[in-house]
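In this supplementary section we document a worked example of the pipeline. Step one takes a protein sequence of length 124 as its only input; no multiple sequence alignment statistics are reported here. Step two produces a three-dimensional model, which step three serialises into structure tokens for compact storage. The input and output of this example are shown verbatim.
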Amino acid sequence: MRVSRTVIVGRDEVLLDHVETALALWDRFRGLMLRKELPAGQGLLLPDCRSIHMFFMGFPIDLVYLDGENRVVKIVPGIKPWRVSLCTSARSVLEMPAGRAEEARLAVGDELRFDRTDKALFPG
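The serialised model returned by step three reads:
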């Protein structure tokens, strides 16, 4: 998996320290399922994705849908397990700990930048 730090462009504020990009089919399918938590500062980016499911999840997360230029098009705060979410205008989805989007004052229209670090946290 590719690993990066996510920055809110224009504010140069770090949104998440460690974001893994799920590129392989298995990594995309597994996502965050069956994990006990998503620690603060960590996230998962699902490129070429317009919807997610929360089946087999044990905790809520924030979803940030991004367009092709990594601009926020939709935010779903605190989506709970066993739910589904969709955004047809999105090109990718960033999953992060519940409450982080509000804490960072993230808004529709904000642009995110992914700076590669390649220090894997989630063993694949």
